[in-house]
Amino acid sequence: DEEYTLNDTPSSSGASRGLELGETTYLSVVEEYTHLGPIVDFDLVPMAGTGEQSQVVTASGSSKSGSLRVIRNGIGMKEYASVELSGIQNMWSLRKNFEDTQDTYLVQSFVGETRVLGVTAAVDTMDESQTEAMEHDEQGEEEEEEVGGTLEEVVLPGMESNASTLYIANVVGNAILQITETQLRLISTSGTLLDSMEPESPMTVATSNEAGQILVALRGGKILFLEIDQGKLQQIGSKQMDREVSCLDVHAFFSDDS
Prior knowledge:
There is one protein chain. It is built from 1 helix and 17 strands. It has one helix at about 130-135, and strands at about 15-20, 25-35, 40-45, 55-60, 65-70, 90-95, 105-110, 115-120, 150-155, 165-170, 175-180, 185-190, 195, 205-210, 215-220, 220-230, 230-240. The strands form 5 sheets. Strands 6-7-8-9 form a 4-stranded antiparallel β-sheet, with no helix packed on it.
């Protein structure tokens, strides 16, 4: 078995090891990973076909263990649609139906109003013969260019558009939950207002999960816990905090007798 002390980190060879202390005084290797140090030199190299995106090439290690390493910044992104808007305070994505796997709407909250952009996929208007010719030409290509879409402003029936939105999301029962500073609104995807509730004080923070469990914080530090039951908003409990609430999060949970 290999034995290490706390100072046995072979950084000069461009590799590090994660160690754990077992039942004895010996250390065992649990994971090995490479790192960049020591960096002797580096250069910035543009990536072909990516416009302004670049990658860093480093000369790492020393002596006979030296190597060249390529570093890329984050995950590659590709733009499908864009629109210039100013004054957005918050933004959420919505699905048209609860069971959908892709988002359809982009909801933006402004001061005193809420707007919705609908994501529309590009429509291919080529006839059958043109499509077959295109597919034949693309058989030899290794990569196929993705087709983008457009963003168009739409109106979601039942949604309160003349107020800033604190939170909006798809919830169980194929419904949409919208929370403004003064009201909770439960809307069906067809636009019917299923239920609404106005707490005694303005709301400052809100969140929910897809199981229909909701947390809202009122001005003054009071937290309300609600659930969606058969298309209705039901308050389950409340808790008065010592200070104002700045953030909330709730994961789906179930009672023991459910």
